[in-house]
Amino acid sequence: MKAKLLLTALTLSVALTACGDNGGNGNQSSDSNAGTSNEQTSGGNASGNTKSGDDLAYEKTAEPVTLSIGFKIPDDKLKSGDTNENNIASRYFEGLTNIKVVHSWEAKGDDAFKQKVNLAIASNDLPDAMVVDRNQLRKLIDNDMIEDLSDSYEKYGSKLIKDIYDTTDGMALADATSDGKLYGLPNVGIEADAPSLLWIRQDWLDKLKLPAPKTMDDLEKIAKAFVEQDPDGNGKADTVGLEGDKAVVYGQKPNPNGFDAIFGAFHAFPKNWIKDASGNIVYGSTTPENKEALAKLAEWYKNGLIDKQFALYKETQEPIVANKTGLFFGPWWMPYFPLADSVTNDTKADWKAYAAPLDADGKFVTHMAPVTDRYIVVRKGYDHPEAAVKMLNVFTRYERRQDPNTEEVKKLDDYAAETGVHIRNFYPFDLLLDYSDAVVKRYNDVQKAIKGEIDPATFDPDTKQVYDFTLAEKENPKKNMDAWKPAKAYEVGGAILANQPMEKVYSVFYGMTRTMETKWATLEKLEIETFLKIIVGDLPVSAFDDFVAQWKKLGGDQITKEVTEAVNGK
Amino acid sequence: MRRKKNDLHYNVMVLPGIAFLALFSIVPMFYAIMAFQNFKPGRGISGSEWIGLENFTYLFQLPDSRQIFFNTIFLAVLKIIANLIVPLLFALLLNEVRVRFLRKWIQTIVYLPHFLSWVLLATIFFDVFSLDGIVNKLFGVFGIDPVLFYASNKWFPAIIVGTDVWKEFGFNAIVYLAALTGINPVLYEAADIDGASRFRQLWHVTLPGVRTTVVLLGTLALGNVMNANFDQIFNMYNPLVYQSADIIDTYVYRVGLNDLQYSLATAVGLFKSVISFILVVVSYVLASRFANYRIF
Amino acid sequence: MVGRANLSNRVLDTTILIALIVFSLACLVPILHTVAVSFSDKAAADAGRVLLTPINATTASYTKVLDDSQFFHAFYISIKRVVLGGLLNFVLTVMMAYALSKDSKQFGMRNVYMWFLVFTMLFSGGIVPWFMTIKSYGLLDSMWALVLPHAVQVFNVILLMNFFRNLPKELSEAAEIDGAGPWYIMARLFVPLSLPAIATVTLFSIVFHWNSFFDGLILMNTQDHYPLQTYIQTLVAQLSAQAMTGMSPDQLAEAMAVSNRTFNAAKIIISMIPILLIYPFIQRFFVHGITLGSVKE
């Protein structure tokens, strides 16, 4: 449990790193949105009346303001003398805003951070502002413990963050809104993070003379060959087939090793609320399609095609990094992590991604993710709720490379280059705003530049960086892993997202309902355990039906009713 | 007059400790009344809605709860039994050794695990029981297929009980060794003269000599029936073996700190306390009645 | 006939000795294995080839631990906790045990206190109320949060109390006739006579404080305040993955050279050392102390 949560944190931050490294230039991206959707209208409105707004947004507070927060400790080693609370990044942001950030508490790892937040809520002792998840946000709203940020956001929110929120069609802000009041400043994730692709050791595939996988049967054959035919050629039967994770499926934003794509191929969407054939809202983990996917996975596990140890790794990426497996599912950013480690350990490793397995009609089907999953909240009664907004303004501006204080920014960049410290890990809030289509757009731009269709000089700094790294990687493959990471993530992962048609299934509901609050944890536990046990053979496949019956009895029916009301009520 | 004066002194001696206990064990009980509420952090204990026993009735409807209570009692009882027998066996063996330095060395070694924390031991055992760990290597020598101990609901309880016995058997043997040295040597001399073999001596002299100790320890252990050892299981378990190893304490931890269900978690913990208390009272009565022993 | 008896005796003795050696080895093997891993090189340890002797012996892991200031800081916190907590335990335990060793004729409230002790030992409101209590005293994130809640170890009090009760009554009666007060009798008579038991409960309280991890995890607000076991607990779950992200290839290569398996093993061994240094030397005392404290003649 701990390991899983931790991993989620870890990979999330990696994902964000991945995107952040290549963060798009705001103006350019919103320009490119023009005409592609009607969201541009609202974006245009926002930009029309925020000129004076931006003056306010980036204005120093007249009096020094103190903002206490809960801080997630990164692994980065700062230069001696600097602390998590007082370092080059914190001093810079304090200088810009006149807001002094102090740490009420710190926690390392997602699990520990979550506990600290939960304890802070329980004892009604919140820091002035902190980052919470959806569940916690709901609890805080219910208990009337946090400030309505509507006015602060309206008045002090920068054009940039308003632009970014607008690209989600209002979904991001709606997510943090209750009774017309905005209670949190949400993050904005990238759409590209949702589909789980099939990653394969192409060198193994070629060596065993196997064709690229399309169908479920192809996948099965490859797994079998990877187990039995000694693809790494060391004369030992030490390779495994398909890798998995004890979470079974991630449901929204996948990490490495989820089976999401297998379920998708059977048109099952566990952990998502979907509409069934007759238009009723149902919980995706309870549809009969899941049973087919589970039966397939159980059969594979039994036949040794899935790593027998998959549920046991402390860190799900262990077998990938150790090059024991050449077959797993994961989102587009896998080259950043864990594949870079795999290649470092074995330079022969050549990873490719495929949108597979396809469903019976030959389509790749995937669930999507909510645009947002965490929120900056401000404690009720804090005198300067705008301080949180202003902080978000400045670090988002820096993150998106639009900070006009070039001299200071260069100092930060140099510091980062010199020490390997990620400046973003020292933002007061672990919450990034990205344009949701950033990955595909950047991939397309880089490809066009390579073909000479666009002049790379027009790129924003981050796209330029991907472009440069891609060229460097072409020149000297696997020499510089920092170049390899973005080059491969875009070239391999981004390409699939850009070129492969996908049937995208959106969950109709991401929030919590009243009954979920007390019963969801139990139901989730029941679900995870049932799925896992069916796959490893502790339970027969027929146990799925018992699970569905029990799920409904234990509050599932009531919750479904509430979700239906919530969706239809909108 | 004199007695009264001492009484005051005794009270003064006890009171600092009592004050600490009151501050850190009794005061939390006031917060624990949230078990009877739908506790809303924003409103605090005084402002939250009273819902009577609803958390408790809900607790009994959960499919989890039966499993968790079962696991707790099952693991605890197995540990109690194993921790009575293995140390006794060890003590009986050690008692036969007459070479002093050997006795002392063996004792020093077997006491060691008792002093190590579960944080450290869990890490060590994870290694020992992993797929390429020592135990599976040993299995390999005998041609047994490697076992995923940490993923198996069949093996994991055995590991929990086994590692607990491993940690404590030496230490638990101390009391037995004391009882064994307490046996009157005249009894052995008489048996020798009668020509009784060492097995007969064991049966007729040694075992009757430690019988009361065994019964007594067994009775006292009754108070631990609801205690399957949070530290051990928290550090060793994983979601795969929740079915066989999730106990009340770990459940309370997860429900309370990860799922934000403060009231439910508190209700479970309170329920456990009540049962434990009853069991201790019972064991106190039994011990004083049958072994004429007052624990306190 | 005598000869045969001797022979079978000798066979029996040998068998018993072998059985005892098996018991002892069982206790040592997991720890020896960890020692071996801590001194092995990364590749061998990761491949699971290390059994009881180091492979390609190296002290790289230990050198790396020496560079880990966080580890030693946590070590220091733990030492501080043990000293403060141990002292407080000692004073309170002796006082309570002495007073409670009197029967209710001499100390009227004795049984009331006794049941109070048992009640507090068994009843707990669970994690959340406990956290809220400690928070309400403003102790969060301070050393006192680790020490004060455990100021009285009820089990130790009962153990020492039983030991005191086994001391001959005549002792204190004679002293009382000589005009000695209860404090004097406690400090000058009972304590010196009870050194084994006092050493035992002190050892227990040291081990308790040294081994606790959970309160550090919940009650400390910054990592700088984590005691050693808490530090190791968070480390074991996190190190491997986190260390790999965001590292440059050089750093990564360096990190890979000392695998976490060996690195963690080294930390585990180092954190065992204080305990290893203490308990064998007071073994005689605690064997004696437990014996008299728990079993009555």
Automatic annotation (TrEMBL), chain A:
Signal peptide: 1-20
Cited InterPro entries: Bact_solute-bd_prot1 (IPR050490)
Transmembrane segments: none
Chain intervals for the UniProt region annotation (Disordered): 23-55
Compositional bias segments (type: Polar residues): 34-51
Keywords assigned: Signal
Protein name (Swiss-Prot/TrEMBL): Extracellular solute-binding protein
Species of origin: Paenibacillus glycinis
Lineage of producing organism: Bacteria, Bacillati, Bacillota, Bacilli, Bacillales
TrEMBL record, chain B:
InterPro entries, per database record: MetI-like (IPR000515), MetI-like_sf (IPR035906), UgpAE/MalFG_permease (IPR050809)
Subcellular location: Cell membrane
Keyword check for Transport: yes
Transmembrane segments: 12-34, 68-93, 105-126, 169-190, 202-222, 262-287
A Pfam short name: BPD_transp_1
ABC transmembrane type-1 domain location: 69-283
Keywords assigned by UniProt, alphabetized: Cell membrane, Membrane, Transmembrane, Transmembrane helix, Transport
Membrane topology recorded in Swiss-Prot or TrEMBL: Multi-pass membrane protein
Family: Belongs to the binding-protein-dependent transport system permease family.
Record's protein name: ABC transporter permease subunit
Species name: Paenibacillus glycinis
Automatic annotation (TrEMBL), chain C:
UniProt topology in membrane: Multi-pass membrane protein
Record's keyword terms, sorted: Cell membrane, Membrane, Transmembrane, Transmembrane helix, Transport
Transmembrane segments: 12-32, 82-100, 112-132, 144-164, 185-210, 265-282
Classification via CDD domains: TM_PBP2
Keyword Membrane applies: yes
Entry keyword annotation includes Transmembrane helix: yes
Residue ranges constituting the ABC transmembrane type-1 domain according to the UniProt record: 75-281
InterPro entries: MetI-like, MetI-like_sf
Protein localization: Cell membrane
Xref: PANTHER family: ABC TRANSPORTER PERMEASE PROTEIN MG189-RELATED-RELATED, POLYGALACTURONAN_RHAMNOGALACTURONAN TRANSPORT SYSTEM PERMEASE PROTEIN YTCP
Protein family according to the UniProt entry: Belongs to the binding-protein-dependent transport system permease family.
Name of the molecule in the record: ABC transporter permease subunit
The organism of origin for this protein: Paenibacillus glycinis
Taxon lineage: Bacteria, Bacillati, Bacillota, Bacilli, Bacillales
